[in-house]
Records
---
Amino acid sequence: MGSPLYSIPGTAPATTPVAEPTADAAAAQASPSTEARTVSEVLAQSQAGAVMDELDRDLVGLTPIKARIRDIAALLVIDKLRMNLGLQAQAPSLHMSFTGNPGTGKTTVALRMAEILFRLGYVRKGHLVAVTRDDLVGQYIGHTAPKTREVLKRAMGGVLFIDEAYYLYRPENERDYGQEAIEILLQVMENQRDDLVVILAGYKDRMDTFFRSNPGMSSRIAHHLDFPDYAPGELLRIADKLLEQHNYRFAPGARATFEEYLTARIRQPNFANARSVRNALDRARLRQASRLFADQDRRFTAEELTAIAACDIRASRVFQAAATQGPS
Ligand SMILES: Nc1ncnc2c1ncn2[C@@H]1O[C@H](COP(=O)(O)OP(=O)(O)O)[C@@H](O)[C@H]1O
Ligand SMILES: [Mg+2]
């Protein structure tokens, strides 16, 4: 991974210190060979195109999300072209909210987003720091500010991903320290937005309530991405991908059994989209291993070692108790 190819100048007021561009970024800006004039030149130099193609390829479904990410990337690319022609570019605000049910791909997409922002030079490092309320808010008076600042420091140059962000706000408790964390976040989101992107994630309805009670936060979020639940066919394709990633595959008939499994599992409590698929496949791999383990003197073929059989899936409690019980 290289260094960012350019950095968008900050829009912070003159009194606020703006981070010095890194030596590499400065060098890149000085070199005439990096003065891209076309979209394809920017994409080629930054390799952002490759990351976007990868996102399209690796992630099943998510069509509206992928389209929004392309829009955001387009904005940054055009910004880069404007800057190369000396047009004063304002760092666009890129703080986002990712809403959706568990396992719909929010964390996964946030990681890709961080990579794209890095490639296009919006952030210096492109790492993702994922936190929840407990990482930001202290238990005692005076503990919250240092905790929040420490997290912000770690996230600077990348993406700060706050999962279930609405837990920062607890109106029922008048003296909740979450408010203190929110205020610090708001300041940094405004003043250092050229080097930190904050993504707030969680359930849509709770996030909407949170934004209604926190207009300051709401006004700083430029992009709201809502992650839909996956359709059964998409979950099945996600299963294929996950197996492929680990060098496994469904044996003949096993995919149909997994489809049946999904139909039952979706109706049961705590169904969590792609995460439930991942967990189910992890358990199927365990069952496959126990099944093979029992055959102690056999020389297994690669074929046998990679195949998840229908019986590895059929053994799930989801089948036995589809009507009455929770997930296996
Ligand atoms: N569209 C997708 N295509 C392939 N795998 C996916 C997709 N969405 C999620 N996954 C997988 O499902 C799991 C859960 O996704 P995650 O991003 O953690 O969901 P969330 O953060 O919304 O709870 C991850 O292991 C991820 O790799
Ligand atoms: Mg997540």
---
Amino acid sequence: MERKLADADEWYGTGRYTRIDSKAVRSGETRRRPQSRPREERQPREEKQPKEERKPRAPREVIKDGKLRLTFYGAAREVGRSCIMVEGKDTKILIDAGIKLGEVEEHPVIEDSLLSEIDAIVISHAHLDHCGYLPHILSNGFNGPIYALKPTFELVNVIVNDYLNISKPKGIRKDALAKMPKHYKMVEYHEEFKVKDLSIKLVPAGHILGSAMVEIREGDNRLLYTGDISLKTTKLLDPAYTEYLNASTLITESTYSGTDDVFISEKQVMADFVKSMKETLKDGNKVIIPSFAVGKAQTVLFILDDYVRSGVLPKVPIYVDGMINKVMRIYRHNVIYCRDELQKRILMSDDDPFKSPNFHVVEGKDERSKVIKKVEPAIIVTTSGMLKGGPVVRYLEKLGDDSANKLIIMGYQAPGTQGSEILGGAKEVSFDGKKVKIGLKVETYRLPGHADREQLLRLIGKVQGLKNIFIIHGEESKQKEFATELSRKYKVTLPVLKEHYEV
Ligand SMILES: [Zn+2]
Ligand SMILES: [Zn+2]
């Protein structure tokens, strides 16, 4: 947690880390590319340096028949910027192309010069830490197909558009967003497709609409990547599909893999949540729930709607502000990818929870001001989930200093974000230099879209023929705790950025 986010680029090759699997790392070291010197040591460029001084790239080692080479360009000992190269003898694919949001935005450490060599990209799901780098990749030489499920593409379009508008990252062609759909190749769950010599299949991951685990097969050599995964049934989604999993190598997420990461029952969490909501929802007081637009918001809204309908919570309006509304529409028309129960509810009755009369869409500044001024108890569900920006900032500016109101945080807060500052007890946070007082009550309830340690272990136990496990997408301290447990039975690696691993 204390580690500065900006350090990530210098993580590789420093030898500062406990190497859980020394053998795997050692073999990786022999293949490590020459490391560039730290910035301060670099000579200022001399004017007369001859152009040709660029060294030719060292010839890449040939990958043996039937082997796969893995290179992690992000999500190594961190949450964010998932981006893994999987190479067969003649094929290079990228699984996920994410960015990392935090104090500073970070990108995968893949060189632009490699992008044109990539045969295809597979996107596991539509969260920015898995797809936010696509515009950059498409602007800098990649020209192949991008594989994912239909709802993933629809969600990617919305959230990447929003990200480009807010973050305005450099190095992206103006038409990158418009060009993205030309590369889309829709696939269905369980449908095998080929990229040259690699066979690939996407399997439900239970995390958000359209989320998938990725199975990659080169002959008998099988690799499984979990993406972000959940083994719990939610109001919207079935859990990850864990039947018939067969792989000798697993790349697993580890967001909640620490020894303390045992989720208490949802029933208990929700009982506390309801009690707290009831305390606040009177006399015109408001509960603000910042939420990720994709996944978390839908789960929260469905729970709130149920409670209001059944009288567990008082009948107060639930205001929905920001991108969540667009995303709700995408969920609604892709309901075939949601749980059967939900489909039936919509098809067989007029009771469409996506269009619940308890939800009130807030569009634009004027409507937002009305919601803020109106003297009535209300729940406001809005973006952004880590309070880095979005409409939630406006609500905090106006309602954040009143101790009668409440802020309820239900998602992961990356270190360095305003959300994590507030959770840490900050009484003032700043947005674009503007200071906002935090006087309202702050509470957090875990409503995770990820597997906890027990679920991860259960998943791993289901994979037939498993030998190697690469742990990614988690904080390093948790990963080490997880590795200790797993290394009794498997060969475990906490990969290092940019190193190659052959499996
Ligand atoms: Zn995710
Ligand atoms: Zn993720």
